[in-house]
């Protein structure tokens, strides 16, 4: 009888379903034809293929010496081989645009025992990769934990009550997988999660950071953050968030600080999903900008989402109620930026990601303030673009998501539309500016030589003013710039006396 292809009705998978359009797996199988090592394909890659998803990183389980096998496979694939921590786990990084990885571990007893030691049943499936490499039309799926049934039922089930105690990082992974796959978490597993939540605080910063980034890399990160909150886990990851809960705001808002933050994150993801509709002329440039990788497989969306989560982190420390009962949060963005920097350092975030997140938190209020100013504000916009720099896109998107989450009785339709139109205008200005940048007419050395002054804050102020009048078309040569600087410095010196 011919084996059935439907998931749950058979414990086999057809070779074409695994190999189709996957050059990396095809190359691995070609290597295995000439290699005597017994190899199994397991984990998330197999799970995703069974679900009809595009698999990325590949998990191999071998019977043999990991060092010898790994180096030979890395050589055949032109990848980089290295050992991860203990000698029984290794990784091959593939040099391609997809930044794919192959993780290799050694079977201690049997493949069945290895699968029983894994985190979730849906990840505890394997196939014999040697049989697949030999040209079999289909191969049997090794399932000793009921993983196939859980895949069919769209359920995340922990292997046992010890799953999260053995590795508390699995708590975040369960939440991430649930959202990523659109699965429910088994009730027993939910109880295990909640029971083990305090153990998350003991996870190393590097591992916690990576799993958080993986959550922010999801299309619907806000769902994962909500689950982490509902299950009482978020406070053990970012304790500062607990103080945001229940903090009432002024009448421009309809939610407390924390629920406003959750809505802002949800709004951001909706905005990114509808860039073409919101920014019809710039959507392609925005998408390209956000898709730039910063750290391994993590792009600029990751620090943007982290910044949205932390943008109002300074509000609990700055809340003030004036005599008329109006709530204020003076300087909350500055206070929040300092707190954010400490959080990023605690998470061992890279300098680049830390710099981006801190900048977004510090500047997130600026577009809103500018949108309220009357008259010509071209100079203020140009200054904002210089301050925002490469992060201007993210600041504008954060501001838009923030504003859309601010729907109290004082938030009128007119003010909301004014803000959105301002964001659209400045986004257009930003991309026009980077396409036609203003070339500086002078530098700091030129100014110090001309004015016979030493380095100081006035040099930066002068350079900024020169760029402004250059942008306005009032000067266009080096001589005119130096002449303007002389007059400006003369007036500056008189004011100082």
Topology summary:
Layout: E1 12-14, H1 15-19, H2 23-33, E2 38-42, H3 43-50, E3 58-63, H4 66-77, E4 80-83, E5 89-93, E6 101-106, H5 111-116, E7 125-128, H6 129-133, E8 138-143, H7 147-153, E9 155-156, H8 163-166, H9 170-181, E10 184-185, H10 187-196, H11 205-216, H12 221-230, H13 234-237, H14 257-273, H15 275-278, H16 283-290, E11 293-295, E12 298-299, H17 301-310, H18 315-318, E13 319-321, E14 327-329, H19 332-346, H20 351-363, H21 366-372, H22 378-388, H23 392-404, H24 413-435, H25 444-451, H26 457-471, H27 478-496
Parallel strand pairs: 3-6, 9-10
Antiparallel strand pairs: 1-8, 2-3, 2-7, 4-5, 5-6, 7-8, 11-12, 13-14
Summarize the structure.
By secondary structure, the chain is α+β, with helices and mostly antiparallel strands.
How would you sum up this structure, described in words?
This protein is an alpha+beta fold and 497 residues long. It contains 27 helices and 14 strands. Residues 1-9 have low confidence and may be disordered. It folds into 4 domains: 1-151, Beta Polymerase, domain 2 (2-Layer Sandwich), CATH 3.30.460.10; 154-237, Hydrophobic Seed Protein; 263-435, no CATH class; 444-496, no CATH class. The chain is globular, with a radius of gyration of 28 Å.
């Amino acid at each position: 009888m011919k084996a059935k292809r439907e998931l749950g009705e058979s414990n086999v998978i057809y070779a074409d379903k695994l190999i189709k359009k996957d050059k990396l797996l095809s190359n691995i199988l070609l290597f295995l034809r000439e290699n005597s090592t017994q190899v199994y394909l397991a984990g998330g890659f197999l799970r995703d293929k069974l679900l009809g998803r595009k698999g990325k990183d590949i998990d191999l389980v071998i019977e043999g010496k990991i060092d010898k096998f790994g180096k030979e496979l890395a050589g055949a694939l032109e990848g980089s081989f290295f050992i991860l921590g203990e000698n029984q786990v290794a990784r091959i990084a593939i040099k391609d645009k997809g930044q794919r990885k192959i993780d290799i571990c050694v079977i201690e007893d049997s493949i069945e025992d290895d699968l029983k030691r894994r985190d979730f049943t849906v990840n505890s499936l394997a196939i014999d990769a040697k049989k697949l490499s030999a040209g079999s039309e289909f191969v049997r799926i090794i399932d000793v934990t009921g993983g196939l049934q859980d895949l069919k039922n769209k359920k995340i089930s922990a292997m046992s009550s010890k799953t999260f105690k053995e590795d508390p990082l699995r708590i975040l992974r369960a939440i991430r997988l649930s959202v990523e796959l659109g699965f429910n978490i088994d009730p027993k597993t939910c109880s295990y999660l909640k029971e083990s939540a305090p153990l998350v605080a003991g996870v190393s910063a590097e591992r916690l950071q990576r799993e958080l980034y993986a959550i922010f890399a999801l299309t619907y990160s806000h769902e994962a953050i909500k689950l982490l909150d509902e299950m009482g886990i978020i406070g053990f990851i970012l304790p500062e968030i607990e103080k945001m809960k229940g903090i009432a705001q002024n009448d421009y808002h309809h939610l407390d600080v924390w629920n406003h933050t959750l809505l802002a994150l949800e709004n951001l993801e909706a905005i990114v999903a509808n860039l073409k509709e919101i920014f019809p002329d710039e959507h392609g440039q925005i998408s390209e900008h956000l898709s730039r990788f910063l750290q391994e497989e993590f792009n600029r969306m990751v620090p943007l989402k982290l910044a949205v989560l932390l943008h109002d982190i300074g509000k609990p420390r700055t809340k003030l109620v004036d005599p008329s009962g109006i709530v204020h949060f003076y300087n909350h963005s500055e206070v929040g930026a300092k707190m954010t920097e400490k959080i990023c350092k605690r998470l061992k975030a890279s300098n680049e990601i830390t710099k981006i997140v801190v900048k977004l938190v510090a500047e997130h209020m600026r577009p809103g303030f500018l949108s309220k100013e009357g008259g010509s504000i071209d100079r203020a916009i140009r200054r904002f673009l210089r301050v925002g720099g490469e992060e201007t896109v993210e600041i504008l998107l954060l501001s838009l998501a923030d504003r859309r989450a601010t729907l109290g009785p004082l938030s009128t339709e007119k003010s909301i539309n004014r803000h959105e139109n301002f964001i659209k205008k400045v986004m257009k200005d930003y991309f026009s500016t980077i396409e036609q940048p203003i070339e500086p007419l002078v530098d700091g050395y030129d100014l110090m030589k001309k004015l016979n002054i030493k380095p100081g804050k006035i040099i930066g102020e002068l350079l900024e003013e020169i760029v402004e009048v250059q942008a306005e078309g009032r000067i266009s040569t080096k001589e005119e710039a130096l002449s303007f600087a002389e007059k400006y410095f003369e007036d500056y010196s008189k004011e100082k006396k």
